[in-house]
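task queued by scheduler; priority normal; single chain, no ligands, no partner chains; default sampling; output format set to structure tokens
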Amino acid sequence: MDPKSLFSLNDHLEMLSRHGDPLEMLERTVDFEYFRDWLVKGLGYGAARQSG
């Protein structure tokens, strides 16, 4: 990846995708929405956060 290139990050991400990006595989395998409520409550942000 050439750090001087304006499109280097995009090129890098496209190359990862073509060669089997492990994060894309994980996204297809795990339903992360299942964990959303727990994370929102546990981390204290989002719709579950109460001010006061």
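post-processing summary
- The chain has one domain: 8-48.
- Residues 8-48 form one domain.
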